[in-house]
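Troubleshooting log. The previous structure file for this entry was overwritten by mistake, so regenerating from the original sequence record. Sequence copied from the archived sheet and checked twice against the printout by T.R.
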Amino acid sequence: MSAIFASLDNRFSVASLRRPSQGLYASTIAPEQVAPSQLARMAALSVTLVRIPIILFGIAALNMGWQLMACTSFVAFALLDYFDGVAARKVGEDTASRRLGDVLLDRVSIHTVILLTCLYYGGGWAAWSVLLLRDLLQGGFSSYLLAKYRVIIIGAYWHMSYGIAILIWECAYVMMGSVSQALAVCTAAIVYATGVDYVARCLKLVRS
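Regenerated output below.
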């Protein structure tokens, strides 16, 4: 398994829209430059795998009708996603394989939770379809970048509003059993605005 990850990291680069002036940046540092204390910190703070039981607990809580516990789990999942990235960057381990795994975990978790919420309440299908379409389109675009430019690009800081908007929409739906039209429209607007901006910035970066 480690050989597969190493192969991915050697074949693909990681770029960031958060530091556009730097373009592509090194995603790893030499092992001899990483102090044992840094490795220990990475082990303590890298919580990608920890997020899996958290989201599974949230799904179980949703199915059992524990709305508050479900929402608490979803919020914890989102917060740990942010700190996982921070920890990885601190020790130079924000690699291609970590990024791919993180994106897959996020998208699969988000859409599984929304699907189950729609099934639980018997509604929300139109909203979920809109969100799913956006992620399928961005996934196709990201695959294009991987195939042509061999790069994985991290979104700008404001693109994190995508996850925040969906989290608010999901928790509102779970707690109240419905979502106001205004909140649904705002969520869709943010979701698609971040997607369009991501595509535009990525194309500008890879073509520069």
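The CA atoms of residues 173 and 180 lie 9 Å apart. Archived copy saved in two places this time.
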